[in-house]
User: Fold Plant heme peroxidase family profile domain-containing protein from Aegilops tauschii subsp. strangulata.
Amino acid sequence: IAHGCDASVLLATNPGGGRTERVAPPNNPSLRGFEVIDAAKAALERSCPRTVSCADILAFAARDSITLTGNVVYSVPAGRRDGSISREEDANNNLPPPTFTAQQLIDRFKNKTLTAEEMVLLSGAHTVGRSFCSSFVDRIWNGNTPIVDAGLSPSYAAQLRVLCPSNTSQATAPIDPGSPNVLDNNYYKLLPRGMGLFFSDNQLRVDGNLNVLVNRFAGNETLWKERFATAMVNMGRIQVQTGNCGQVRLNCNVVNPMSSSVSLAGSVEDDGLAATS
Ligand code: HEM
Ligand SMILES: *[C@@H]1O[C@H](CO)[C@@H](O)[C@H](O)[C@H]1NC(C)=O
Ligand SMILES: *[C@@H]1O[C@H](CO)[C@@H](O)[C@H](O)[C@H]1NC(C)=O
Ligand SMILES: *[C@@H]1O[C@H](CO)[C@@H](O)[C@H](O)[C@H]1NC(C)=O
Assistant:
């Protein structure tokens, strides 16, 4: 069973019981903003009932965040349907941890049909947002002793130790300290300066083939933004449910009650996703 772009991450409970993706350690407490998705869903159910899936809402929200933070405009195919199963172990087994090597990152993306170049392109999303200290604390502290992991700038490590004073700190740090709210190509410029926050970020410059791409995207923001948008569209095609598979959830947090049959009208093409939205 595929649990890709089917909004399984939004389910707060499973009909069959068991813990969900959303409470898995890689997602919790990191994932937030569920109320924004709920508000969009509520508005859509008022204006156009039983038509727009939660999986499509997530894809549109990602697109709109990119437009708002990066001034990048692109179209996203529509027509994904929502899944009915969410399992904690799917998140644990599929999301790459920040301790992965270049080869492990390439393999994990390949398993989801994404190329090494797309892995490098999509990693540029680390130009926005924040991370809990736990994802990089072992690069700056060994117990109470300051350390500097390979590939990390000593002065940046010192700044990070101020934000993350100990292994038990629940604090967060910006992933791109220069412009944490702007989607630009700064991520790729930080890497050669020893300012990739995660061990996994630094792997993109340690691997020679990947580093060629890092330099290319650092040198041409237009090129990165164009290809990033295309990679986002490709990522949004992973393990989609269309046709008679899945459902259009009425509430993104729970699967529909058995009695409510909801179908999705509209034309479908090759992979079942309609051309644009
Ligand atoms: C290449 C493998 C990747 C690894 C190992 C990775 C790892 C991480 C980690 C550990 C965090 C911090 C989570 C926290 O502490 O709350 C994070 C945050 C983030 N990641 Fe990734 N990530 C990867 C790929 C991606 C991709 C493909 C995207 C999107 C296209 C992305 C977008 C983000 C964003 C926007 C944040 C900040 C979220 C926030 O502010 O809460 N990452 N990532
Ligand atoms: C991805 O990994 C899963 C589980 O490990 C495996 O069953 C599947 O065949 C892999 N898919 C690809 C495209 O490598
Ligand atoms: C942080 O604490 C965890 C849990 O006690 C431990 O496993 C880990 O080794 C510690 N890391 C560092 C860098 O001290
Ligand atoms: C940067 O990339 C854009 C888009 O692909 C291209 O049109 C432009 O010629 C590139 N600029 C340079 C200086 O290479």
In short: The CA atoms of residues 77 and 276 lie 4 Å apart. The pocket of 2-acetamido-2-deoxy-beta-D-glucopyranose (ligand 2) is lined by residues 111 (CB under 6 Å).
